[in-house]
Amino acid sequence: MSPAEIESNASLLIIAGSETTATFLSGITYNLLRTPAVLKKLTELVRTTFAVESDITVLKVQQLDYFTACIEEGLRTYPPVPIGLQRVTTAEGNTICNKYVPPNTKVSVPQWASYSSPANFLDPDRFVPERWMKNPPAKYANDNRAVLQPFSVGPRNCIGRGLAYAEMRLILARVLHNFDFELQEDSRNWLSEQKSYGLWEKTPLHVKIIPRKL
Ligand code: HEM
To answer: How confident is the model at residue 136 (pLDDT cuts 50, 70, 90)?
Structure first.
């Protein structure tokens, strides 16, 4: 790319391509530390599946259903894009959710509100990866799973979705393989202290990182 092309693409690569995935990884780190039983199960899965770090590949991590369930629950509990992204109705207007919406009206579905609503998910504030398994526990079977669309939908949805999943899987698996974690006291309320004006305005997440004892 020419310097001019790099310059005009830089904000896209930083905001769309890096901030989002990094945000997800911060959020899932926090939620795993707040849910020790899940952290233990996921860490054991990674360490028993991969004897050494170099065994970890995107394709192999992709085959671990519980790992994928944790990623989906991470996207639900802390969607990197928490707001609703706007679309505009056509010149004739559109019928959306059985209601007529007039022409040229901006519409959107707010992600954070939809994912944390008890109308869509049982125990919305709990981190429950099992709700994303093929056979979820009966009490979570009626969750409205189709509502989770963290990469948006339609022809202008996230073009980097595949790359994002690859990065999330690889980085999380390698980090869990190598380290143990402790959430520091001053970060206990990390999520509830945050505001969003588009993306999340993250405060520092203080975590003690300890090399795994072999
Ligand atoms: C967890 C990570 C990510 C999330 C949650 C995410 C989410 C989104 C969302 C919600 C949109 C807006 C789509 C819409 O308006 O309907 C979007 C657009 C976009 N994303 Fe991502 N994204 C992620 C990672 C990435 C990565 C890694 C890249 C590239 C390296 C990327 C590149 C883009 C681009 C270029 C667009 C604009 C697409 C267009 O307007 O046609 N994203 N993303």
So the answer is: very high
The percent helix, strand, coil of the chain (3-state, each to 5) is 50, 10, 40
Instruction: Give how far Cα 28 sits from Cα of 12, 143, 198, Å.
Output: 23, 20, 19
- In the chain, domain spans: 10-82+110-211
Encoded tokens for 38: 């899940």
* CB-CB contact of 23 with 199 (8 Å): yes
Above 90 in pLDDT, residue 16? Answer: no
Name the residue type at position 75.
Answer: L
**Pick from 212, 47, 64, 202: nearest CA to 129:** 64
- Position in ligand 1 atom list of the atom nearest CA 149: 10
How many A from CA of 123 to the centre of ligand 1? 28
- Residue 138 per-residue DSSP state: G
Predicted confidence at residue 110, as pLDDT, reads 95
Residue nearest to atom 17 of ligand 1 (CA): 158
| Fold designation for 10-82+110-211 | Cytochrome p450 (1.10.630)
Closest ligand 1 atom to residue 18 Cα is: 27
